[in-house]
Amino acid sequence: MTETIAAIATAIVPQQGSVGIVRLSGAEAFAIARRLFSAPGQQAWESHRILYGHIQDPTTAALVDEALLLLMQAPRSFTREDVVEFHCHGGLMVVQRVLQLCIAEGARLAQPGEFSLRAFLNGRIDLTQAESVADLVSAQSPRAAELALAGIQGKLAGTIRGLRATCLDILAEIEARVDFEDDLPPLDEALIQRQLGALLAEVERILATAEQGELMRGGLKLAIVGRPNVGKSSLLNAWSRSDRAIVTPLPGTTRDVVESQLVVGGIPVQVLDTAGIRETEDPVEQLGVARSRAAAQAADLLLFTLDATAGWTAADQVIFDQIQDLAQGKPLIVVCNKVDLLGRDGLAGNGLAGAGEEFGLGMGLPEAIATAPQVPTAAAQGQGLDRLEQALLSVVQLGGVQAANLDLAINQRQAAALTRAQVALAQVQQTIAEALPFDFWTIDLRSAIQAFNQVTGEGVTEPVLERIFSRFCIGK
């Protein structure tokens, strides 16, 4: 008999939150609930009912909380075990006390992800659905939440099972020829080839979502860099529609890295406004500059910000050289700010205007800058942000797959398994092309089937499961 586990299933913040939930799962869940919960009147202790009453300490009869109790009897529960939930008043002390009472009555504190692990082991969900539960909890954008919910509903699992079923059908046809070749009609190799081609095309389509899936889940870290007083803080404020950063005409106002969370095209973006990079004797500003360099090194993408009224300066060149050393190979977007202070002639006079664009920025810039996307903005007026977002999405667009068009998005573990399936299926095609015996066909087909099984969790080893579920929160 499995142990009964208990955990706080809601985020607990002192002085915040109206409801806190303590969840139990296991054979003793109902018995523990009866010892702790007093339901007045003739309320029936039946599955999928909510009882009203009070939680009491059984050793002292002290009242702990006025609460609701939710009963879910196996197998009609998330874990397919008996599950009870105490819905208490929120905050810190009450739910902690209720959890301690559950443990004192024989429950064990759940490990991270143990509720979801039991749901997987008991056949309630497969591994893709379990991973989608974690993705939904940690989703940073509405689009990420939609993709996670599609995973929970079995979108990926259903697709993988369909691919696996086709592989099994092909394998059955081939093995039948191995054992009873004389009694069966010749194998339709052209049909097998078409089926394998369709399988590979679908696997490749799913694999193409991996990098976009990582973007949707983890988001982008973007650093705004440049010399002091080019409008970096104004850009952050306008983009985030808030006064996150202090803006003054004085250079060096920003002394530390200021961040804001945005969603661009369904992708979570962490925008870091850095202190202007320059040589300074001010020890506080020196710390800010050092943190700016560190932020540039850690960012996924850089917004190199220029002042259109000054054009490309020697100070910009010095900063650009430093950034190149810190962030080699990272994508770069050039933001030419304060264009509202200049007309087209003024832009051209500063070497920042080119032909064919309303505010083309290609001429007169160093080659490494001139080849990067260039966006004119007037951050103080909130202008140019749409164009900046379009440039950002163009830079992070991968394989022609836009985030808005995804119907599923795999993670790195799933991508690794599907890559093994892709290799195995391609090897089957090669085996057929070389006219090798049927036995050779079956070897790689079995490898592909095993790889599909690993996506959904069949045959996954215990250490792999422990690694996956250890990243979950304790109450899941």
What does this structure look like?
The chain is α/β, with parallel strands linked by helices. The protein contains 17 helices and 13 strands. The chain has helices at 29-36, 93-104, 114-121, 127-138, 142-152, 155-180, 189-207, 210-218, 232-240, 283-298, 314-326, 344-349, 367-370, 385-396, 412-433, 438-456, 462-469, and strands at residues 5-8, 19-25, 37-38, 49-56, 63-72, 83-89, 108-109, 220-225, 258-264, 267-273, 301-307, 332-337, 374-376. It has a seven-stranded mixed β-sheet with strand order 3-4-5-6-2-1-7. Strands 9-10-8-11-12-13 form a six-stranded mixed β-sheet, sandwiched between helices. Strand 4 and strand 5 form a beta hairpin. The longest helix has 26 residues, at 155-180. It is flat, with a radius of gyration of 30 Å. Residues 244-256, 351-363 and 398-404 have low confidence and may be disordered.
The tally of beta strands, per DSSP, is: 13
Structural class: alpha/beta
How would a textbook summarize the main sheet?
A: 7 strands, mixed
- The coarse silhouette is flat
Beta-strand content: 15-25%
First-residue to last-residue Cα separation: 21 Å
Into which percent range does the helicity of residues fall? 40-55%
What is the count of helical runs?
A: 17
**Nearest-integer average pLDDT:** 81
